[in-house]
Amino acid sequence: MLITWYGTASVRVTIQSLTLLIDPFVPLPGADYALSPQDFMPAPHVLITHGHLDHASSLPDLVKYGVGKLYATKTPCATLSRYGVADEILTCISPGDELLFDASTGRSSDKATEIVSVSVKCGQHVRFDTKLVLSTLLCFRLLRYTTNLRYIFKLNKHYVENTETLVYEISFGSRRITILGSPGLAATERYAQGSELLIMPYQGSSHLQRIALEIIGRLEPKAVMLNHFDDSFPPISRNIDTAGLEKVMAEVYPQTELIIPERGKQYAFD
Known about the structure:
The chain has helices spanning about 55, 60, 75-80, 130-135, 140-145, 145-155, 210-220, 245-250; strands at about 1-5, 10-15, 20, 45, 70, 90, 100, 115-120, 165-170, 175-180, 195-200, 225, 255-260, 265-270. It is an alpha/beta fold. It has a single domain (about 1-270), classed as Metallo-beta-lactamase, Chain A, CATH 3.60.15. Strand 12 (about 225), helix 8 and strand 13 (about 255-260) form a beta-alpha-beta unit.
């Protein structure tokens, strides 16, 4: 398995000939980096974890460059359809579903000898606490990025989460990676433990360190890769300092590798 992080929560999972693209997002002006829709190609299979704009709003532009199939829950499917994404490439999914792909051909299939299974689980979106909201709204950065702010507020009315955040468990043979759409787990959902890799967003709360440790304790992964810790849609996003979590992880979970990925670099998990 090869993992590539593009920024925000955008991740590519490559298994032999199969490519799964999760939550591709083109950063807004003023971000730490620049990407275009073409940079996410090829995109034969795109999985969306939830309908917020930083996870789904780039898709109407991406489909112009050849997205194959797009998998999402009911709300983002309806939103993307309204924004012009053709219904024939949209596949509405729900927790409890299992998507099957052929690793050797890269196509969806339930008859392959080298099956990649994607289990769709219920997740939970992190709560934007009062301290975080106030520190974001009462910040001089709002004045620097007024154009972005108007754009975000406009899209935010349409790109809603609607309590539909997902967790994807991707399995190939004995290997498994778990991908969270937000740093939160549903209390009643049963998740696989001991994945080779947990990919977890690290933004959206004033209590990220505590939340991350709780998730890691529940899922017991062998390694953790953070994403979404960058400033990709200012002034709402921000760069998150991961040093505190790195220090605590070394003390509390010394057996668990913590990966702070470099954007665009491939990471192999064999």
